[in-house]
């Protein structure tokens, strides 16, 4: 429905109902997120969600891939307090205060190299890995060669018969 509303309507999809359902679902998820944030911080104030925090969340959403569900999940893993930051802290000893700096560098690199975000590069990566695996599967197996034994190493038959 996102690319062509007329085609969706011709296919029997109720466009207005689907848009209302998407709006309802997104507002429900935002409400649950707000309730969880209020529980975590004790209250929700304008100071909690200032301009800088909002821009940071938007930057990590773009870094993950703003147009896909997988991008939202990846962005959530990368944001401060996410699994990736916790792993960097415990495994590599990187201070979590560098999350914003690393996110900014990643955002610039993603915007220049892959404007669709990290999740947008996954199908291309999957295709490249799949073609490499297919080429390897289609390649003929190498025929083992037996090295020739030098004449000096050959055993000399000293009259011992076989059979």
Word description of this protein:
The structure is a single chain. Helix 3 packs across helix 6 (99-113). This protein is 63% helix and 0% strand. The protein folds into 2 domains: 1-49; 50-139, no CATH class. It contains 7 helices and no strands. With 163 residues, it is an all-alpha fold. The protein has helices at residues 5-10, 15-41, 51-64, 69-78, 83-92, 99-113, 118-138.
Give the tags.
163 residues, mainly alpha, 7 helices, flat
Quick structural overview:
The chain has 163 residues and is mainly alpha-helical. The chain is 63% helix and 0% strand. It is flat and about 80 Å long.
Biggest β-sheet: count, sense, barrel? none
Mean of pLDDT: 79
N-end to C-end Cα span? 83 Å
Which percent bin holds the helix content? 55-70%
User: Looking at the structure, what is the overall shape?
Assistant: flat
Give the low-confidence spans.
none
Write the layout of secondary structure elements.
Elements: H1 5-10, H2 15-41, H3 51-64, H4 69-78, H5 83-92, H6 99-113, H7 118-138
Helix pairs in contact: 3-4, 3-6
